[in-house]
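step 3/5: co-fold with adenosine-5'-diphosphate
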Amino acid sequence: MEKKKEIVMSGIRPTGFLHLGNYFGAIRNYVKMQEEFECFFMVADLHSLTTHPDTKELKANVHRVLAENIACGLDPDKVAFYCQSHIHETAELYLYLNMMAYKGELEKTTTFKDKVRQNPENVNAGLLTYPVLQTADIILHRAKYVPVGKDQEQHLEMARTFANRFNHRYGDVFPEPQAFNYNQSLVKVPSLDGAGKMSKSENQMATLYLADNDDMIRKKVMKAKTDSGPTEKNTPKPDYIENIFLLMSLVCTPETIQRFEEDYNSCTIRYGDLKKQLAEDMVNFIAPIRNKVDAILQDEEGLKQIMQKGAEKANKSAAETMKQVRQAMGLNYF
Ligand code: ADP
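step 4/5: write tokens
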């Protein structure tokens, strides 16, 4: 008998163009995991409503996230690739989990505090319970692994807390979900200005998007923060230089990196040359993805079929879980 595959779940919000952080934090793992796990990958359109209530751009953004994931190698025939709002059981599980999530613990979440600071006039209950909805998405498929970037570590910890709390109160239904990255530690792709992470909506000139054209990529990389170089041999790198080396490690060859490491250590490094090299390697990495995205976006009917097929697979798994949940909670009266 074939061994049952372990279950994987993750999602990306359709709040703008995808960037290198999304690729190296999440999508790269999706593409690898689809070969060995049973995968559920989702466009988190409901989550986007917590910060982006205006839905005029939503459809275009959902299409873009679908196309960008597929262009990066995600195969809708191998995985369930679906839209969060198409799976209505998510809302039901979210409701039950909300009864087990406490205001105090939700208010302490770093992402909540950040978003309150960024947007003090829209502190809605959905924002506060964001990690509860995320837990519902994950445990709805009884997923064990969640490929995400480092910024999601705390949310995953909360997902484990809520899953355990449910199990403890009503009986064992859910496995404990774990954040996952193939290289053990989770990835944070830094922004080019050395202040924070690449992101869909903030810091756009310091973020490299999969949709950026070649000139834009070069322009952004050449503006990355550097200095006049080290004055003593073999000294530690300042943060912003460390960040540039981290970005190189994502797209440059080991020989290129070694050459610039040696130049750094011998104080002969020329940051202009380093950035030119990094810009060209970024162009070579991003351009083929960008061209594929443009082609996929032309085929609206194809995108619709992908969403329908994904929803069918996800709905089946959700229905099985919710049967167990209602039973465990004693919500089965006849
Ligand atoms: P964003 O923060 O850009 O809006 P999402 O919240 O939709 O992105 O996150 C989608 C996925 O991309 C998550 O798994 C998240 O951890 C990952 N991610 C986002 N930004 C980065 C980054 N700079 N480095 C690594 N992973 C990231």
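step 5/5: annotate
The mean pLDDT is 96.
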